[in-house]
Structure formats: structure tokens, C-alpha cells
Design a protein that fits this description.
- This protein is mainly alpha-helical.
- The protein has one domain: NCX, central ion-binding region (A middle domain of Talin 1, Up-down Bundle), CATH 1.20.1420.
- The protein is 76% helix and 3% strand.
- The chain is built from 16 helices and six strands.
- It is globular.
- The chain starts with a strand and ends in a 13-residue tail after the last helix.
Length: 410
């Protein structure tokens, strides 16, 4: 397959790649040598290591887009981009059987990452689209109804989790099965010739053999660096909270996901700035599918394997409320996209509802916001009822191998 680039590959692309690798390298060396750092320095160096490796691994995934279908490439990119989030969250789940507080932190990290993605990521993409086009409606391609339909099913199922008050291996099977089904169907989409710039372009311009070897090498290096840095980063963050008198729950729920998901946000933002807002939004929607299925389903599996038990991962009342609020926000987000578009006011609502809840300390605020999201979901679905049938039709067509919907020019 011939790879195309919107820019001629040049030295600047390789400089970015080298910089990302150099930023990741100290964290890997520190971990391999068993060096322990004070909390602040550890948080900074290991956080930067995750950041550098995440950029490198995301460019690697983007460069592979011409070898697989666009939908599968977006799913793969979404998985790779949230790999740092998996590393941090699975560390807390793995250690939860022996450290009770880590059970709370695993849920804090998972719910924070999911809510940040919708509450900040989606509106930012719309904002970049609006700045570039001054249009008040961002439309996504009909084929992306596939991602949204899987997100809808996962969201409906997720409401059973706070009702039960735990995560179990049943959730692993159901949510893992949903993600597997999504990837299989995404893989049936046609392969499209990509247009890359910067680091992804210089990798994609390599001859086939060298390109694939480079992709594998970069992927392995980045993945090892991310998983090597995850434990010391998480531990340093918790220790820093104790040292500074800041709630470790707050740090793990909001600060850690900001660090681990920033490459994902930046890559989607670059897609939007390159005139591909539909692909940018689809990448973040795919990331949400990924995090709301595979990530959530992985937690009880890691918890069970580490503890040598099939006992469920139990919640306290706050954790149940956090999961309920996250599920309600997800339902609202799906309802907004039933029209396969996002308006200016919908983007503002997503951001406002997320940001304002950060400043309310009322013990019942999470429940109030959850009920508010659900009420708005019902209102939007009633208002968008005429779009439900076309949405379902688009989702069905997206599963068919022979159907290829051209990308809209946005």
C-alpha cells in the first residue's frame, strides 16, 4: 500500500520522535535500576515518562492507519492512547486486595478518566472546530454510529454496576465481549489511505518492511516504558497528596487522568486542527467505548488474579455514586450524538455540567448531577426521536463489510 502525507517527511518529525523517547527514557532507567525518588520528583519524572511514551506510541498507532481499516485504526489508536490510563488504573486494582484504599483509588481513576474524556475532551474538539470554521454544528460520519451504538449498550449495562455495588468477573465477560465485538466489526470497514503530518508522516513514509519493524520497535519500547512508570507514578502521586495534605482520591481522580490522557487529547486536537474534526471526535468516542468497556471490565480481572480469588470488587457508597454519575454522563453524551452531530449548545452543556460539579462539595451533589444528566437524556431523546431510526440504520450499515460511506468534507 502506498502511504501519502500532507507534508514531506523531514528531520523535524524524527526530532519529535527522539524527544519523546528521551523524555520516556529516564523513567524506564529509574525503574529498572530500582531508584526511589521523593514524591514530587517521582511524580514529575515518572509522569513525564508516561507522557513521552504515550506520544510515541500514539504516533506509532496513527502511522499504522494505512495498513488497517480506518475504523479499526481509530479503535487501535484509542486503545494505544489510553494505555497509560490502563497502566495506572490496573496498578491500583492489582494492589487493591492488599491495600484497601487502592480499591477506592482504582474507581476514582476510572471514573475521573471517563468523565474528563466527555466533559473536557469532546467540548475542546468542538471548540477547535468552531474556531476553524465558525460553524455551530459539528457533524460526524454516519459510519461512527457503530462506536456510539456500542457505547449506548455499554452505558445501559453500566447502570447495573452501582445497583449491585461491585465489579465482578461477570462484568469482565460482558464488557470485554462488547469491546471484542466492536473491534471485530470495526475491522470489517474498508482501508483508507491516510494523510499524516509530523512524526506519523515520517514513520508512514518508510518502506513497508522498515516501517513495520519501526512500528513494532516503537510500540514495544513505549509500552514497556509506560508500564514501568505506572507504579512509581501512582505511588508518588499518593505520597505527594499525603505530604501536601491534598486528598489522594482527588489527585488520582483528576490529576492522574490529566497526565495519562493528555496525549490522547492532543492527538485528537491535532486531527481537528488539520481539518478532520469528524475523525478527531470519532477517536475520542472510540476512546470512551474503550474505557467504558475494556478498562472497566479489566479492573475486577486484575483484582481477582492478584488476590487469587473470584470474589467481586466491592464498592462503598461513594464509589457507587461515582459510577452512577459516570454512567449518567455517558447516557447524556450518547443522547446528544443520536443526531450524529454536536451543536455549540450541546458542547457547552457537556463542559458546564462537568466543570461545575468540581466546585460543589455537597455530599449528595453526585446524585443530583446524575439525576440531572438522566433528565436531560430523556428530554433530548424525545426531541431527537425522529433521528433514532436513521441512527439505528447507520449503526447497522456500519457493520456490513460491503458498505463504505464516504467521509464528509467538514
Amino acid at each position: 500500500m502506498t502511504h501519502h502525507s500532507s507534508n514531506h517527511p523531514g528531520a523535524s518529525g524524527w526530532l519529535f520522535i527522539a524527544a519523546a523517547a528521551l523524555i520516556a527514557l529516564p523513567a524506564l532507567v529509574l525503574r529498572l535500576t530500582g531508584t526511589h525518588l521523593p514524591p514530587v520528583q517521582g511524580t514529575l519524572l515518572f509522569g513525564l515518562g508516561i507522557l513521552g511514551a504515550a506520544f510515541l506510541i500514539s504516533w506509532t498507532a496513527e502511522a499504522a492507519e494505512g495498513d488497517i481499516s480506518q475504523a479499526l485504526a481509530l479503535a487501535f489508536l484509542a486503545f494505544i492512547a489510553v494505555l497509560p490510563e490502563y497502566a495506572v488504573d490496573l496498578y491500583f486494582a492489582w494492589t487493591a486486595p492488599f491495600e484497601e484504599s487502592h480499591r477506592q483509588l482504582a474507581i476514582a481513576n476510572m471514573t475521573g478518566a471517563n468523565r474528563l474524556l466527555i466533559g473536557i475532551g469532546w467540548p475542546v474538539i468542538f471548540g477547535l472546530f468552531w474556531l476553524k470554521t465558525r460553524r455551530a454544528m459539528l457533524e460526524i460520519d454516519r459510519s461512527h454510529a457503530l462506536e456510539l451504538s456500542f457505547l449506548a449498550v455499554a452505558t445501559l449495562y453500566s447502570f447495573t454496576i452501582p445497583l449491585r455495588g461491585h465489579l465482578s468477573l461477570i462484568d469482565t465477560v460482558v464488557l470485554g465481549g462488547l469491546f471484542a465485538g466492536y473491534v471485530v466489526l470495526a475491522a470489517r470497514r474498508p482501508v483508507a489511505a491516510p494523510e499524516h503530518i509530523g512524526p506519523a508522516a515520517v514513520i508512514g513514509a518508510l518502506p513497508t518492511g522498515r516501517r513495520r519493524a519501526t512500528l513494532i520497535a516503537f510500540f514495544l519500547f513505549s509500552a514497556v516504558a509506560i508500564f514501568a512508570a505506572a507504579e512509581p507514578f501512582a505511588e508518588s502521586l499518593v505520597s505527594m497528596g499525603a505530604q501536601w495534605g491534598v486528598s489522594e482520591f482527588v489527585l488520582v481522580q483528576w490529576v492522574a487522568p490529566l497526565a495519562s490522557e493528555s496525549p490522547e487529547f492532543i492527538i485528537a486536537s491535532l486531527l481537528a486542527l488539520k481539518g478532520r474534526p469528524s475523525a478527531a471526535m470519532a477517536a475520542l468516542i472510540s476512546s470512551k467505548v474503550n474505557q467504558w468497556t475494556l478498562l472497566v471490565g479489566s479492573l475486577p480481572l486484575a483484582f481477582g488474579i492478584s488476590g487469587g480469588s473470584i470474589q467481586p470488587m466491592m464498592f462503598d457508597p461513594r464509589q457507587s455514586e461515582e459510577v452512577l454519575l459516570t454512567a449518567a454522563q455517558s447516557a447524556f453524551a450518547v443522547a446528544v450524538f443520536v443526531s450524529l452531530s454536536l451543536s455549540k449548545w450541546e458542547a457547552l452543556a457537556l463542559m458546564a455540567l462537568f466543570v461545575t460539579q468540581l466546585f460543589i462539595s455537597d455530599l449528595h451533589a453526585r446524585l443530583y448531577y446524575a439525576y440531572g444528566y438522566l433528565a436531560l437524556t430523556v428530554v433530548i431523546l424525545i426531541a431527537q426521536r425522529r433521528n433514532l431510526r436513521p441512527f439505528i440504520t447507520s449503526a447497522w450499515e456500519a457493520t456490513q463489510r460491503q458498505v463504505e460511506t464516504p467521509q464528509r468534507k467538514l
